Amino acid sequence: MDYQVKYKEAYEANKGKGATPVPETPEMALARQLHPVQSNKLYSEKSKEMLKDVNVPPGSFDFKEYSLFLTVVAFQEVCF
Question: How many angstroms separate the CA atoms of 77 and 72, rounded?
């Protein structure tokens, strides 16, 4: 019975720490933190590249939405 208590204590102490047996290094922590930023940057670059192929027919252009789009793009360029 004593081994079950020790096992449960060890399990509770290690719960949520992940399955990697290697302790997290500062480089690993930085990579984990920067992954969403890098992913968003790559997504933005790809979407800008895809926008070059989009044609808008005359008269269907909404200037309010375009100005909002430019604001978002400018903000992303400054932040990322």
Answer: 9
What's the CA gap between 78 and 28, in Å, rounded? 26
- Domain tally, the chain: 1
3-59 confidence digits (pLDDT tens):
888 888 888 887 776 666 778 888 988 888 888 888 888 888 888 888 887 776 666
What three-state secondary structure class fits 30? helix
Does residue 6 fall inside a structural domain? no
40: which residues sit within 8 A by CB, 6+ positions away?
80
The structure's pTM equals: 0.36
Owning domain of residue 32:
25-53+61-80
76 inside domain: yes
